[in-house]
Amino acid sequence: MIDKNAGKLVSKDKLENIPALISAYYMLTPDMSKKEQTVSFGTSGHRGNAYKKSFNEYHVKAISQAICDYRKENGIDGVLFLGKDTHALSIPAQLTSLEVFAANEVNVFIAKDDEYTPTPLVSFAILEYNKTNNKKGDGVVITPSHNPPSDGGYKYNPPNGGPAESDITNIIEKKANEILKNNLLSVKSISLEDAMRSGYIKEYDFITPYVESLKDIIDMDLLKKAKLKIGVNPLGGASIAVYKKINEIYSLDMDIIDPFVDPTFSFMHLDHDGKIRMDCSSVYAMAGLIGLKDKYDIAFANDVDSDRHGIVTPKGGLLNPNHYLSVAIWYLFKHRHWSKGLKIGKTLVSSSMIDKVATSLNRKIYEVPVGFKWFSKGLFDGELGFGGEESAGASFLRFDESVWTTDKDGIILNLLSAEIIASQKRDLSDIYSDFEKSFSKAYYARIDVTATKEQKDILKNIEPKDIKEKSLGGEKIEYIFSKASGNGAKIGGVKIVTKNSWVALRPSGTEDIYKIYAESFVSLEHLKSIQNEAKQMIKKVFKEG
């Protein structure tokens, strides 16, 4: 259900009380007998809320010590690059982690001038460091992504630069919870003053090397010559200074909208549920930028840690993330001089329009479970030219096919949209319309349904044999699988495929919901039909009827 205030500017009575929130971070302690208050790494790190005792100083100390232990046990002895976004809890969490890292004699690079650091810049810094150093570097980004202002988050990126895979996060999660159960007795920590004087913490310029290297992955000369009128809204996030540096170095005609940090995010428009959420793929949260679409040749936004993108065109408004992924893939594999063996990475819940575009390009698809971590190795090794997920996160290789980042990079996806327009001189929505003419129209939707922990566990462990139906939406079911075709990893649910449609059923890793993803290449009515049949399938699996 859409909240009556969705898409409206946030009212003052809905703004977060920042002093109270930070006090809760320091004053409240988790109850380890309650699972919701323990450390839990989802598809992108641990996220929580200080008031709900799921993201407090205790959690950050425990996770930081667990990472120190993991580094020691795995011979990771280089610099740890530490970034933070603009959520209110990110600064205190960074300070807490520095007290632990310094006590454990970990060399840490933090942004100079106490600047904020987007997720892709941390990945970029790790990879650049590891190219020229014998020691292995890694990183941490303190961010809950696009979550509401009250939330905090903590992500670990190992030496490959990407989000840590489950075999790593399981170790860190288990260790952190053991530390919490023992009341932090094994945590090494010193005062912040001693940490800053220890010699283990140094300032580092994350922004300049990244921005100067953009010419290696985006045709910045073309953008400059095209003289496009560009609008960018960082949504009060960590990319503000990055776009300022881009303007400074490349002299683009780019307006930076709301170029200031406000931990209450008072300039935001409310999301679908009436909450403040910096989701650059939401038409409600992006209402402000959408309203300016006719002012610019292209406009775009990032979420708070800048790993997601949102593209707004004069004709198409806010592009559906699946639509833009299809366009971006088509353009890159058509106009980059990449070798023929490079594959296209997509998550199993992304649109099958991507598969059809890939076939037209004579490129192979590499399909993985939900989570960008599954693309990191392929991008690092040069097996994938592109990796993207339906939630508006992607990255790709440089012109010379070398790795750029192994984490999502919303900044390069935004700049790529401008390059495509400069090159093709067409609205991106028109390019996507060509795909619909060639391959038929895709009707895609996701439904979120409230679920208990028991229901989520059942759905997470579901197998093809548990689905008894032989047809879906009037078509024969051709495949049912619980492992991704690209890497054989379990998807934490099932995907059911027919000739002209598919549906995927899986629980959320971070919320008390399960998700029904569905797509039809027949009609909107057909989409609704397969959604309803999927709901009945789930009821049978839950033994509800």
Architecture overview:
Helix content is 34%, strand content 20%. The longest helix is centred in the last third of the chain and has 18 residues, at 524-541. Among the domains are: 16-208, Alpha-D-Glucose-1,6-Bisphosphate, Chain A, domain 3, CATH 3.40.120.10; 440-541, Alpha-D-phosphohexomutase, C-terminal domain (TATA-Binding Protein, 2-Layer Sandwich). The model has no long low-confidence stretch (mean pLDDT 96). The chain has helices at residues 18-27, 57-73, 90-103, 119-132, 166-181, 192-196, 207-212, 220-226, 240-250, 287-290, 321-335, 353-360, 376-381, 410-424, 428-439, 453-460, 524-541, and strands at residues 41-42, 45-49, 80-84, 108-111, 138-142, 151-157, 201-204, 230-233, 254-256, 298-302, 309-313, 317-318, 343-347, 365-368, 384-389, 393-396, 443-450, 471-472, 475-476, 479-483, 490-497, 501-507, 513-520. Helix 2 (57-73) crosses helix 5, helix 8 (220-226) packs across helix 14 and helix 11 (321-335) packs parallel to helix 12. With 545 residues, the chain is of the alpha/beta class. A seven-stranded mixed β-sheet has the order 1-2-6-5-3-4-7, sandwiched between helices. Strands 9-8-10-11-12 form a five-stranded mixed β-sheet, covered by helices on one side. A five-stranded antiparallel β-sheet has the order 17-23-22-21-20.
